[in-house]
Design a protein that fits this description.
Blueprint lengths: L2 H8 L3 H9 L6 E3 L2 E3 L2 H8 L32
Antiparallel strand pairs: 1-2
Helix pairs in contact: 1-2
């Protein structure tokens, strides 16, 4: 697909597509000096990524109480 066709398919501006391409956020190909997008790759790219499951990261909550902004009226820590 041409950049114009891809932008129309994604319902975004062509300039947004070029920004996404320059940031490496969208799959693309160079054919000579022409920029092209493979339809199947774009369709797959638009599908939700199931492998991007957010993992729980243990957080040391003691650092959350350093500023005192999380204290109740009696000075109790939340």
């Amino acid at each position: 697909m041409t950049p114009e066709q891809c932008a129309a398919f994604l319902q975004i501006e062509v300039s947004t597509l070029y920004v996404m391409k320059s940031q490496g956020r969208i799959p693309f190909r160079k054919v000579g000096h022409l920029l092209r997008f493979d339809f199947e790759e774009i369709v797959e790219w638009t599908k939700p990524k199931q492998e991007l499951i957010v993992m729980e990261i243990p957080v040391d909550v003691s650092s959350l109480y350093l500023c005192g902004c999380n204290r109740r009226n009696g000075g109790d820590v939340l």
